[in-house]
Amino acid sequence: MKNDKYASHNNISLLARLREGDLEAFNILYNRYWSVLLDESYKRLEDLASCEEIVQDVFIDLWEHCSKREILNVEAYLFTCMKYKVFETYKKSKRRNVLIAENKQLYQSQEVVDGNTYGEKDLKSLIEQWVSNLPQKRQEIFKMRYLDGLTTKEISELTKTSQNTVQNHLGASIQKLKKLVLQHFLTLLMIFYTCK
């Protein structure tokens, strides 16, 4: 390699230099192992962009932690890091695919209106089901407020419950409902971009 004074050095020597912050030694290791790590990670994931990111992360990890960790074999260290990062990427991808698979069938039958993939009817059905599963008192208060349009004071008088308790019931319900709607929306987004 042109102008690389450590190119003929073995990995032990390069590792010692790297611990001292020698960028040239790092570049030699990078050039020595970049393509083989990329090939090995690609065999496992078959996603070039993800594999390039993984290998980049492996070398960033080596540069940042070399002086703090007891690395005896730099090649083994690089391959172990790569395998770990591939496994983590695979796990994330698998979780995402499971979520999509569980919900895809439900949304495939959803009509697309005016180019909008957000299933309004399905969301309404989801909320109705969610409300029906609320505890009796909370369900009653929720319906009075958001279906009948009563104020918290009116609900308090009708249910013989303090206004503060009514507000607490409503606050807890709305917080959970927001999470439900957000999950629904995110699932639809993932399905939309996966099916494109």
Q: How is this structure best described in words?
A:
By secondary structure, the protein is mainly alpha-helical. It folds into 2 domains: about 10-95, RNA polymerase sigma factor, region 2, helix turn helix motif (Rna Polymerase Sigma Factor, Chain: A); about 110-195, Arc Repressor Mutant, subunit A (Orthogonal Bundle). The chain is about 75% helix and about 0% strand. The radius of gyration is 28 Å and the shape is elongated.
CATH class categorisation of the largest domain: Mainly Alpha
Q: Structural class of the secondary elements?
A: mainly alpha
How many strands appear in the DSSP assignment? 0
Query: What's the CATH H-level homologous superfamily of the largest domain?
Result: RNA polymerase sigma factor, region 2, helix turn helix motif
- Shape summary: elongated
* CATH architecture descriptor name of the largest domain: Orthogonal Bundle
Strand fraction = under 5%
Low-confidence stretches: 109-118
Largest sheet: none
What is the fold named in CATH at topology level of the largest domain? Rna Polymerase Sigma Factor, Chain: A
Order of helices and strands: HHHHHHHH
- Termini gap: 45 Å
* Number of helices, where a helix is a run of at least 4 consecutive DSSP H or I residues: 8
Compute the CA-based radius of gyration.
Answer: 28 Å
> Percent helix among the residues?
over 70%
Mean pLDDT, nearest integer?
77
Query: How many independent structural domains?
Result: 2
Keywords: Sigma factor, Transcription, Transcription regulation
Organism: Sphingobacterium athyrii
Protein name: RNA polymerase sigma-70 factor
GO molecular function: DNA binding; sigma factor activity
